[in-house]
Amino acid sequence: MAILLYELVGRDAQRPFSPHCWKVRMALSHKGLDFETVPVPFTEIPTIEGGVTKIVPLIRDGDRLVADSFAIAQYLDEAYPDRPTLFGGPGGVALSRFVESWSQRTIHPVVTSFAVRDIHDFLAPVDQAYFREDRERKLGARLEEVQEGREGRVDGFLKAIAPLRALLERQPFVGGEGPLFADYIVFGAFQWLRVASSFQPLPEGDALSQWFERCLDLYGQAGRKVPAAA
């Protein structure tokens, strides 16, 4: 029986965009596991599996429900130890925790500032109302004000992620010669931006851009099957 992955979508159910859900999509593909996706907009998350979760991604594997992308990755490695590892051992789990913490504090806020109004426009009307109220309360400003002037923030962003760019000049993946869950953590953030917004800050030919293209090509071009925003 295939694993079910509940994942966040906008008005187009074929365009999942959540960075956390993309981590799990890639992790399932990495493990070579059969899975089916269940598209869920923001305002329907409380209805999933009888209200068991307030967040996605959520997976159902038989009678087991697991929420949170990192917890799901750990579960997959523990439940399917005969499949390719996502972490490469306990040390990899700890290092991936650092990558997750760094990504959510360094990349995610900037992606939000680059694309928060674009994400709003990507959603169905009922979700737009929820998203605007929730994000403007959290950000303390209108979505349009947050996104305004994004071109002027690109250089600062590229400097902030310079350690990642330097690493990828020396090796093809964050995980080394092949990808690990740490790669999918960072990939999810840039895929979020790619799917939801036409604004793309990465320079063509940059080591990070080349890494992102390699990630898009993984697992039969799984990342490319969802088109970039026009």
Structure description:
Keywords: Transferase. One of its GO terms (molecular function) is glutathione transferase activity. It comes from Consotaella salsifontis. The chain has a 4-stranded mixed β-sheet, with helices on one face. The longest helix has 17 residues, at 90-106. It is built from 10 helices and 4 strands. α4 (108-122) packs antiparallel against α5. The N and C termini lie far apart (36 Å). By secondary structure, the chain is α+β, with helices and mostly antiparallel strands.
Q: How would you characterize the largest beta sheet?
A: 4 strands, mixed
Q: Enter the CATH topology name of the largest domain.
A: Glutathione S-transferase Yfyf (Class Pi), Chain A, domain 2
CA-CA gap between termini? 36 Å
* Helix and strand pattern: EHEEEHHHHHHHHH
Kindly provide the name of the CATH class of the largest domain: Mainly Alpha
Q: For the CA atoms, what is the radius of gyration?
A: 17 Å
- Second-tier CATH architecture of the largest domain: Up-down Bundle
* Uncertain residue ranges: none
* Domain tally: 2
Q: In which range does the helix fraction lie?
A: 40-55%
Percentage of residues in strands: 5-15%
Find the count of extended strands (DSSP E, 2+ residues): 4
* Count of runs of 4 or more consecutive helical residues: 10
- Overall mean pLDDT score? 98
Protein structure class: alpha+beta
Strand order of the largest sheet: 2-1-3-4
Shape: globular
Keywords: Transferase
Protein name: Glutathione S-transferase
InterPro entries: Glutathione-S-Trfase_C_sf, Glutathione_S-Trfase_N, GST_UstS-like_C, Thioredoxin-like_sf
Domain GST N-terminal: 8-84
